[in-house]
Each structure stands twice: as structure tokens, then as C-alpha cells.
Amino acid sequence: MVFLRKKLIKGKPYWYIVEAARVNGKVKTVFQIYLGSAEKILEMKKQCESMPYDKLKSFEYGKLAALLHVNEELGFIDIVNKHTDKKLIDGLSVGEYLLLDIIGKSHGILSENGIEDWFKKSPISFMWKFPHKLNCQNFLNQMSYIDSDTMKKIEDDLCRVLVEKGLTPSIMFVDESNWFTFATNYDEKSELLHKGYNKKHRKDKNQICVSLAVNENNIPFIHETYPGNVPDSEEFSGIVDKIINRLTELNICSEDLVLVFDKGNNSKDNIEKVISKMSFVGAAKANQAEELLDVPLSRYNYLYKNTKGSEIFGCRTKHQFYGTEFTTVITYNEGTYKLQKSTYETNKSKIIDQLQDLQRRLESSKGKERNRSSVENEVSEIILKKFRTVIKYEIIAAPEGKKKPQLKFWVDEENEKRCEKTFGKNILFTDKQEWHTKKIVKTYNSKNLVEDDFKLLNDHLLVPVGPVYHHKDENIRVHVFLAMIGLLFYRYLAWEAKIYGFSMKQLIEKLSEIKIAVVQEKESKKSKIIVEEMDTKQASLFSFLNLEKYLPS
Length: 553
Hints:
By secondary structure, the protein is of the alpha+beta class. Among the domains are: 1-50, no CATH class; 53-145 and 479-552, no CATH class; 283-437, no CATH class. It is 40% helix and 24% strand. Helix 3 (76-82) packs across helix 4.
């Protein structure tokens, strides 16, 4: 639904047009346009009355046209059609269907079922004509042309284009994430759908996992969809193989590449595999080098100030990991220390309050009888994973005459001290011993590039992976593949428009506010399409990306 919303800013009322929709069961704002004060709205109305035409309908155009521009730059439709075997018939090609799916999802359409309605309200309906309906089955039919081998060939060709445009990777950042699904693993036939540790805490749902590798320009180069019950460290070996194969396809020497990954991927086999093919910068778990956390801060040197204004310090040394000595840097960020300390205290207080409440309920004679197993499960739900070494507990058999077990809990002060020593610190290790300490730390901390990409993959107005409603593995893989291609489109667009200094969010907002309107001249009654008023930066973007060429006639 669309409605007017008034906001009081410094006591003055300002008006917005707002569109709300239900997302994952909750009503959220999906679109907002600032109109201004009542006086400005009145002025706009008078200006409209003086114009030589009447507006019939307005369409969002900028983001749509920008995605069509990236499609042409990368040759996406042609690459897809080259690798899919579909008879020449009237209607859209496989490449056009997939592009339409990407564009629809980037406009908040969360399933293929909704694309037909969105298409009718979009200016793309003026541009693409075909003799049949856009229903969910059409899109599922096109997905059947895309198997794992075809996806690899499409990604290979897209990466080849990226390299030709100067985006050859010299550093690659790897990370993993997961998404819960609404699919049931019937008779355990699915390879992908399994329960596991879910980042949204939906352990009741089957999930899928995705690994992603991006280059130093934040351009996605490789992804892998894998089963929801496979630990990240086990999957890591597979993504390393894919990176090596992709580089081989692109005639890039893997020995020149630096791989950056976090401590969740550590294992002796993984480290040995990486250093046999390329260089790396990684992070160690605290218990792998606990003595390094005792180094006094007086031995740390100032390195640089990050984008948040926090000063980063580092202490360089050598340390052995997995039987090999590596250059090691212990880093310290006071801003992170304060944040982690505050978060720790808040969570600890909540856990203790909940345990005290459970303890009180177990001591009460009221309520149902409880067994040890049910209490164990509730305690496990209360104590977060990272607190299980700090907050200890014991479940005592129900005393005579009582129908509930008793709970005893306490804080392990020794383990708490060990935990607190890690706040604000990170232990990095690398085989790039010739690198300056600052470069090692900055390179690892740039890992937030891939972490930011996973945030975009959770944004329902950009390139959402979730929610996942598909039940078949092959459709799930294509669904994730299209989200990754959408991410590639946006990251390429941001790289191309980097001269404007916009964040991704700012760039998309600027493009989304570029609109076209179907108008009718008041005298001749002829209809035409015009671009609505833009600010100077939008006009510059419009010209720079040559978005005029996609205007429907």
C-alpha cells in the first residue's frame, strides 16, 4: 500500500510518499520519496497546472536502465544464450528471462510468481514484447537450461570480460554464509537442504550455505552453493580448487594471488593446500596462540586510522601454526575493544537473568513436572555458544518430594579472563614476510568487502538470496546463481561509477529516484515519454552511464 507520511523535523512538518509491503511476515517500508513541506507541495501543484501536458503515469527508470547498461557492458544475455541449447522460438531467450529475473528481484520481487505483475507496471514492458504470459512456470522452465556446468561456463566468460576491462584479481577475499529455507528435505533426497548452525537462529528450518570469493575491487569472481550441514572449513578446500581452476581458465598464475580468509576456515590441510598454490593472509583462533594475547600494549606500534576513525595498532613477531612458522601480527583496536566489552556485558547480564528466572521456576512447586532433558534443552537455548566456556552449570536431580530438577550455575572467572583478553585483538598470520606490517593488517581488514556483499545478498531491494522457496537442488543452485550475478551487476556498476564517491546505498538511491513519465500534451492530446526532473548528480550519472539509450520510444 502507498500512503502519505508526515515527519516532524525540528518541529516543522515534512511529507513523504511511502510504500509498505509485507516482508517475511512483517510490514516494512520498501519505497520512500521526499515531497517536502506543505508549501513546497502546493508550489509543485501550481507548476504542474502551468505545464503544457498532463502526466498519465510515472515509472522508476534509473536503476532498471543501469542494470540494462551493465548487461550490455558484460554481454550477459549473449553469454547465457551461447551456453544454453534452446530452440529458436518466439518470445524471450533464456538470457533475457534470467536478466528479467535479476531485474525483478532487484526491485523487491521476492519470487518468480510476482514478476508478471511487476513487469506490467514497469517501463520494460514497453521495450520487450512477446506472445505469452510471464508466469512462474515460464521461469522454472528457463532454469532447467542452467545446470552446474553451464553456470561455470557463464561465470568463466563473465570473469574473462572483467579481466579484459582491467579487473584482474591480485587479492581475493573468501567468506561463507547461510540462508534458511522454507523447503523440506523430503526423504532426505536433497543434497543441499539440511539443518545446521543458522546465522538467523532458525535451527528449525533447513538451510543452504554459500561461499563467495571477491577481488580487491569487490567484484564477485566465484561462488559455491553447498549443503547446509557442511562446516565452512570443509567447504573451504572446494572453493580453493574453484579459484585455481578459474584462474587457470583466465591464464592468471595462482602464485601471484593472495587469498584472505577468516579463522573459521583454518585447518592444517587447508593451510597446506593454500600455500602450495598461492600466498595468504589469515587469522588464528585465540587458543592457537594464547600467549600472544599477553603481549603488553606498550609493545604495539601505531599503524593507521580506519574509516571509522579508530586507531589500529600492531605487534609483529613470528609464530608457528600447523607446524610451520609464519609472520604474525597481533592487532589492537580500542574502538572494537569497547564495543566487544559492552556487548559481552550486556549478553552476560541477559543470560544470567534468564538462568535466574529458570532457577526460580524450577524451585517453585507450581507448574508441570519436568525431566532433566527438558531443563538441559532450555539451558542450552539460554547460554549462547560463545559463553559456554564462561558460564558453567549443573543440573541436580529433583529432591525428594519435588517434581523438578534443580539448577546451579556460576561464572568461570579464569575462562572469563581468557575471553576478555581477546577483546579488540586479532592474531593474523601470513607467508608474505616481505610485506610491511601495515599492509598485512590493512589487507586482512579489507575482508569486510565480502562481508558487505553478504549484507547486500540479504537486502530484498538489491539482490536477495532469501527467502528461498525452491525445493529442488537444481532450482536452488540457479536461484543463488542469479543472486550472485545480480551482485556482480551492482558491484560492477559501483566500480564504473566510482568517480562519484557514492556508497552502494547512495548510488542505488540516486538511480532509483530517476523516473520517467508518460504524458499527454494538452493541446494535441499526443502521448510521449519524458524524464522527470533530476538533481545535478543524477543528471551526471544519467549522462555518464548513457541511460537515455534505453528510453522506450
